[in-house]
Amino acid sequence: MKTKSFTKGLVGCALLAASLVTGCKEYDDTGIRKDIADLQGRVESLEAWCETAKGQISALQSLVTAVESRDYITGVEPVTEAGKETGYAISLGSGKTFTVKHGTQGDPGVTPQIGVAKDEANPSDENYYWTVKTGDDEPEFIVDPATDGKMPVTGEKGDTPELSVAEHNGRLYWKVGEDWLLSDGAKVPATGEQGDAIFAENGVDYTTDPNSVTFTLADGTTFQVPYASTLLTIVADEENVNTFSVTSTLFEESGNVVDIRVESENADGMTIATRVATTRWTVESEINGDVLTITADPANAVELGEKALLKVTVSDATGQVLASGRTVFTNARKDNAILASSPKILANALNNDPEITEIRLDDDLALDQTLVIEFGDAAQRSVRTAQTLEKTIDLNGKTLTGPKNGSTILFINQGTVTFKNGTIDIANAWNQHADIGVGVDKSQDNPKSDEVVSKATAKFHKVKLNACVLVRYGSSVEITDSEVENPLYCVTTNANASKADTEPVTVKITNTKLTGETPVMLNVPSSVEIDNCTITGGWQGVMMRGGTATIKNSRISLQEELAANEGSWLKGRKIKENWGSGNEIPVAGITMGDNTGTAYQYPTSVTLENTQVSGYEDYWAVFADATETCTVNFKYNEQCTFSPKLDQEQSFKQGLSAGKYITVNNKAVVTE
After folding, report:
1. What is the pLDDT of residues 409-468, one digit of tens each?
2. What SS3 class is residue 557?
3. Domain limits of the chain?
4. CB burial class (10 A; 0-12, 13-18, 19+) of residue 625?
5. Rounded to whole angstroms, how far apart are CA atoms 622 and 614?
6. In a designed cystine with 541, which of 163, 371, 556, 638 is the match (CB 3.0 to 4.6 A)?
7. Chain centroid offset of residue 585 CA
8. Fold category of 230-265+279-333 in CATH
9. pTM to 2 decimals?
10. What is the C-alpha R_g of the chain?
């Protein structure tokens, strides 16, 4: 095949009429004006035709790309315009689409026909190149002006020729790019009725052979592309990331070949691009009966959250595509981090995968009671001391919700779990179960045992937490820059033994707002640090029935709407009688100590710095009672304020101890 030659030429600068308009002599120019109008109309018509041809040249380029990359067709849908069928929309297995317009015959010899062909003179060259055919001439290769060689259709140097018309000496001629189209050395005129420059009439045949689609170009060239009309459904695994399953009887047929490919998106986050090198994705698969299981394992170059495309095709022994499927998924694993898109993935990462240290929520997740979210072994048989497990759950602006049916839904049995950047909404009405349990003791074997089985730490950073966190002996909770709300307790403990000879609970709360009936309720030996917090309760803001607390730069107050106004609710309750369990004790912004003589037998120390404490009007901001064992040591500096005003008679001498065993700023309230 020859290379079609073109000659450079300037577009005519003036119409034919311009050369005739000379001198001042009057003459009848009606004919000239009609010729000009006809020429302008012809130009506009051809320009519109060229624009259509441009789209079809692009469609042909997509077709050649599909052939070269061994792509296949998944759908052929008619396209209608103004109620008339005008072509077909072609869908490829790669996800790309293009539209082929129905060709029109037109007048012979006047329409340049753009096509593609391989170079028969160079059999080792598998590339396609653009061709042009005029009249009865043989197709010839189009010259690439950048190289003066053949113009490739695809690849790095692939381009598309541009058809246009231009006027020369009052007539219109064809151009390809910037060059005149020549035939036997003469410009090819753009006259007569234009036909199709790319695809022939009825150039798409998808009915003759159910396994392929045949495309016919205007110059007679044909292409056949496999047609996979059976679509496979790819289902993501609910428990394991980057894992999928496909069900089809085709997997059971001997001789069929399954091809699995994974493609990643561009680094700039745009649409799915070219195939990725095998060094990036490792694809493992297993066929069991009619089920294909696929696991896509990314290499370090693939980012967490990066979009990817999974494609599955089934072919027979001859290479004919029988079925195909594709799905876009989000890469959910990188190094020691995963994206959790389901509660089961979250549970599996916490419970069963020790390699995972960071879990990021990919969506809002709703937990249910059939699924226990548990970190660490909860076995009661032996005491564990060395705990090094750490995991971070990045809520990623999402919300973790729970069933709210009165049972613990999150167990942190050992090690450290950090929650950050989102919302946890799992609050239950209190029925001896918290929403989040931290640590394990032997109380399940012996309700009176305080022996530690395993220590754990729960951390919350920038979390909106609607839940109760129960911290068991020897364990800790840290809350920073958060909001915690619960109908009853926000942070609490559970006293199993009367004397608790084990390590204390540790509580650190900073820059946080806590709201509940008793937001901080601690009834075992505790080490507490509260700084720059706003605590609003109904019965108590802070309840310390044992341990040491330092509260700085904070505001503690009460609001009656937060109190459960039922049962023993009275603002002046439990003053001259033994305190009950839990928060069944006197009402105050801060309530300290114990007076039972049988339970909660440990001393309490509370220190305030630059803190405001408020109680109900006509009652008291702080209240304390004590025994010889349950002593109370209360300190505050000059920057602290109390409302009602602090009065030792009201706050420290009303209880059963009448002020004995209580010191305020290192001075005994009652001296013997």
Report:
1. 788 888 899 999 999 998 876 555 678 889 888 776 776 777 888 889 999 999 999 999
2. strand
3. 32-105+193-227, 112-187, 230-265+279-333, 517-564+575-671
4. buried
5. 8
6. 556
7. 47
8. Immunoglobulin-like (2.60.40)
9. 0.69
10. 41
